[in-house]
Amino acid sequence: QVQLVESGGGLVQPGGSLRLSCAASGFTFSIFVMSWYRQAPGKEREWVATIAPGGGRTNYADSVKGRFTISTDNAKNTVYLQMNSPEFEGTAVYYCNAPAFGSWGKGLQVTVSS
Q: How confident is the model over 77-98, as pLDDT tens digits?
């Protein structure tokens, strides 16, 4: 049974930083693509970032490129999203995703506010 459990959300200032974590279980984490998505109030869920298996190639939405970093720790079966200098528009519920299984975490609220 695939499970994704996110942690690390909360309040962050526009010039600050926050790291989200997603602990995965129920599959061989190191050989699957992992992604982060977000859904702002009143908007559709949007893709944020993806990382290839084993912590390889990464891709980012233009809106976060250069400020957010996706990474993995295969020893901990965990994928991270480092958010640096998030914008006010970054206020959203952030979701961890394992595309191969169509699985989602429950989501984390991140609020960007001064």
A: 999 999 998 887 789 999 999 9
